[in-house]
Hints:
The chain is mainly α. The protein has one helix spanning 2-78. It is rod-shaped and about 105 Å long.
Amino acid sequence: xxxxxxxxxxxxxxxxxxxxxxxxxxxxxxxxxxxxxxxxxxxxxxxxxxxxxxxxxxxxxxxxxxxxxxxxxxxxxxxxx
Length: 81
């Protein structure tokens, strides 16, 4: 009988160990989405900031383009020197 008790105990210990490993992996999976959400939120925030900066640069470039066109027209009206 003692020979059979040892394998049963060993089997139960292994089963507990397996269930603990499964529980640990579930807990890790529960944590990961929060980290991913935080990272995604940060990426979205940075993307919005970059878009805003690009819009400001584009606006400044349009102003300079308009000024340059005005200067070219004025120089064209004056004629060659």
